[in-house]
Amino acid sequence: MVDLILSIYEIPVINILLKIIVILVPLLLTVAYFTYAERKVIGYMQVRIGPNRVGPRGWLQPIADAMKLMFKEIIFPSGANKVLFTIAPTLAISTALAAWAVVPFGAEMVLADINVALLYILAMTSIGVYGVILAGWSSNSKYAIMSTLRTAAQVVSYEIAMGFALVGVVMAARSLNIGDIVGGQSGSGIWGWYMWPLLPLFVIYFISGVAETNRAPFDVAEGESEIVAGFHVEYSGILFAIFFLAEYANMILISIMAALLFMGGWLSPFDGIEFLGLGSSFLATSSIVWLLSKTAIFMFLFLWFRATFPRYRYDQIMRLGWKVFIPVTIVWIYVVGIMYYGELSPWFVKG
Amino acid sequence: METIVFYVFSAFMILSALMVVTVHNPVRAAFFLVLTFFSSAAVWLLLEAEFLAVILIIVYVGAVMVLFLFVVMMLDINLAELKKGFVRNLPFAIIVALAMFTMIFMVVGSEQFGIDKFAIPERHASDYSNVSALGQVLYTDYVYSFEIAAVILLVGIVAAISLTLRRRPNTRHQKIEEQVALKSADRLRVVKVDAQARKYSLAKKTTGSEGEK
After folding, report:
1. Based on CB atoms within 10 Å of each CB, which residue in A143, A291, B22, B151 is the most buried?
2. Does A149 touch chain B (CB under 8 A)?
3. Smallest Cα–Cα separation from B57: which of B47, B68, B65, B46?
4. Which of residues 286-325 of A touch B (CB under 8 A)?
5. Closest approach of chain B CAs to the CA of A126, in angstroms?
């Protein structure tokens, strides 16, 4: 019996499908409880309690929300292009989930270990903008099209700053493979992480990530006070829920990428350095727990930003992207080049 | 398996390329062009050119076509007008297409690139990196052409910016550097005001009492 199960597991298609399930089910659960965490965290920051009615302390709230949205009617606006109207959320969610194929969770825990993993993630997030564009255009609504134009311009602008920030990481790691990038940060604990030599790029990467996922304070795409709900103003029921799911999956993706590229991924901060005698304890071993806790820090930052900052004015968003971030990244790429030739220890020592 | 993938994506590519020129709505044509790029990226993946395939998606699908759609969506286009031109120009278009096709076939057809002329390229091992292979060639053998291309692109950027960098004299602009440098003290003045007695009601009371006298 065990042999039979093992032999079934060895079939490539089934093996890959099982791995996909193992990645996607926890991801979607995280998305569901991320929305709950968002409402609770922002609630406490605003001296409220947040959702506390459904289940003990409101823990079943995301389940209730999902059920409600699933059973609601899908309304097609008159004059809307039905085919494109339904393709739009599909495109948004499929690219948001497809990007997770190359995300490693440990030294060997990766679904697709490809050479151009970093570029693949950039490509998937850049296709994701078509979900927004299609939704805005096919809705046949003025608010939706306004939001689409805003989003398209914003995402394309911040993609450049983000790409330049990643160039610094690629120069330091000499690889586009995410596993190799994490491996390049090992050896000297917290000081070996790329966030120290690439600090400006790290900050720019995360802020561009916030802008690219259209989250506050860069959420002019759904500026409630100006254009109601933005590109998904005409969406209801499950189609709206799918947009929501894609947005949160993208936020988690940006968080885990920041943890992997700049904060050593699954490496322990005490790995290889002597600190309070922790050198040999379980805290010094690298594991997925470190990766997930680092990711959680960035996920919390997303919520903190939303509770703290007022929305940017649109021309200021564009100015920040083009006139501040892109020049800073270009200058820092030169600095990285100098550090590379100086073989600055411990990051740029050629192995 | 690979052959099936190749034919599926090639069929997608050719069909969507056909739709780009036959569809009447320009926004839909742009979307079909996106699909064409996407399928050609998939075909490139089969050629073990994963770097080029992903770059094609990032640059053309993720950036160029977004800007393209941006422009097309803003245009006010009369669809009926477009339909008229299609039938009238069809014979001419077919002649041009056939001429182009024969020219392309003469250059890269089976005469020049058949299997009898070139051996089937060998499969690379799974550790083959298209990125480093490309970088090796680009920065050594072809470094001058690479740099010339870079300079031409730079000239293009400068030209495009100088074309749009004209300002009408009477327009008003926000000076963002001034806005950013602003402190709250520049706009807000806190004035100390002494507490004052309520003059009106006091005066009324005194006049009233004076009247009684």
Report:
1. A291
2. yes
3. B65
4. 315-316, 319
5. 5
Distance between CA A242 and CA A138 in Å, rounded? 16
The answer to whether A116 contacts B57, with C-beta atoms less than 8 Å apart, is no
Give B54's contacts in chain A (Cβ within 8 Å).
116, 119-120, 122-123
As a whole number of angstroms, the distance between CA A135 and CA A233 comes to 9
For A330, B43, B48, B116, the CA distances from B110, given in Å and listed in that order, are: 46, 19, 22, 9
pTM confidence score = 0.84
End-to-end CA distance of chain B: 115
The 10 Å Cβ neighbour count of residue A272 is 17
Question: Which residues does chain B have within 8 Å of residue A114's beta carbon, measured at their own beta carbons?
Answer: 50
Q: Is A240 touching B (CB cutoff 8 A)?
A: no
**Contact (CB, 8 A) for A305 and A206:** no
For the beta carbon of residue A269, count every other beta carbon within 10 angstroms: 20
B154 touches chain A (CB under 8 A): no
Alpha carbon distance B176, A315 (integer Å): 9
| ipTM here | 0.78
Q: Which of A36, A90, A75 is nearest to A237 (CA)?
A: A75
Asked if the C-beta of A153 comes within 8 angstroms of chain B's C-beta atoms, the answer is yes
Helices A326-341 and A199-212 meet at what angle, rounded to 10?
Answer: 140
Query: From first to last of its 351 residues, what are the pLDDT tens digits of chain A?
Result: 777 777 777 777 888 888 888 888 999 889 989 999 999 999 999 998 888 888 888 888 888 888 888 888 888 888 777 888 888 888 889 999 999 988 888 877 888 888 888 888 988 888 888 888 888 888 878 888 888 888 888 888 888 899 899 998 988 888 888 888 888 888 777 788 888 888 999 999 999 999 888 887 888 777 777 777 778 778 888 888 888 889 899 999 999 999 999 888 888 777 766 666 665 666 677 778 888 888 999 999 999 998 888 888 888 888 888 888 999 999 999 998 898 888 777 777 765
The token pair that represents A181 in the structure block: 């990038």
Contact predicate A264/A186, CB 8 Å: yes
Domains and CATH numbers, chain B: 2-84 (1.20.120.1200), 176-204 (no CATH)
Q: Tell me which chain A residues have a C-beta less than 8 angstroms from the C-beta of B62.
A: 122-123, 126-127, 129, 156, 159
Q: What residue has token string 């990051």? A: A347
Indicate the length of chain B as a whole number.
213
Q: How close, in Å, is residue B37 to chain A by CA atoms?
A: 12
Which residues of chain A make contact with B69, given a CB cutoff of 8 A? 133, 137, 152
CA distance A295 to A257: 8
Residue A188 CB contacts under 8 Å (≥ 6 apart), including other chains: A272, A273, A346
Quick one: how far is CA A181 from the chain centroid? 18
CA A201 to chain centroid, in Å, comes to 16
Q: Does B193 touch chain A (CB under 8 A)?
A: no
How far, in Å, CA of A322 to CA of A203, rounded?
Answer: 15
